[in-house]
Amino acid sequence: MKKKVAVFRKEHFNAAHRLHNAEWSDEINAKVFGKCNNPNYHGHNYNLDVKLVGEIDPKTGYVIDMKVLSDIIKEHVLDVFDHKNLNLDVPHFKELNPTAENIVVVIHELLEKAINKPELELTVRLYETERNYVEYPA
Ligand code: NI
After folding, report:
1. What is the DSSP string of the chain?
2. Domain 1-16+41-67+97-138, CATH homologous superfamily name and number
3. Which residues have a catalytic role annotated?
4. Domain ranges in the chain?
5. CA of 109 to the centre of ligand 1 (A)
6. CA distance between the termini of the chain
7. How far is the CA of 14 from the centre of ligand 1 (A)?
8. What is the pLDDT of residue 64?
9. Cα of 92 from ligand 1 centre, angstroms
10. Cα four-point dihedral sign 75, 125, 97, 37
11. What per-residue confidence (pLDDT) applies to 12?
């Protein structure tokens, strides 16, 4: 059996959001989401770790060409999320609350589709702050 190697790419984007559940009253939203329910939005400096696990391709010596990975992340995540208002500008969050948990799942879906290599195992970690971060799949 061939050895599997994990490769990682770190990225960064800035975005604004508001946590809000339209089915709840303003009072309940304020109670549940606190400052994150601010009607005028607030921003985060998000850090993203993309991890791929797979076998080394004997021809290239790579698990994946990191330039290719970096271009995919730029096109499918950074160009979509960076300097955007997630609630207003990113269609995925028209109905979905842009919590770190929901954002990481959306990013995983976008990247999995774009990378299109089912033999590679993709994990995405998203830092909303230095101390608060999420990972998908768990
Ligand atoms: Ni927030």
Report:
1. -PPEEEEEEEEEEEEEE----TTS-HHHHHHHHGGGG-TT-EEEEEEEEEEEEEEPPTTTS-SS-HHHHHHHHIIIIIHHHTTEEHHHH-GGGTTS---HHHHHHHHHHHHHHHH--TTSEEEEEEESSSS-EEEE--
2. 6-pyruvoyl tetrahydropterin synthase/QueD (3.30.479.10)
3. 36, 83, 128
4. 1-16+41-67+97-138
5. 21
6. 26
7. 11
8. 98
9. 17
10. negative
11. 98
Residue 20 has which token pair? 């809000």
- Give the Å distance between the CA of 18 and the centre of ligand 1: 7
What are the pLDDT digits (tens) for 44-65?
999 999 999 999 999 999 999 9
Amino acid at 104: V
pLDDT at residue 28 greater than cutoff 80 = yes
Distance in angstroms (rounded) separating the CA atoms of residues 89 and 59: 41
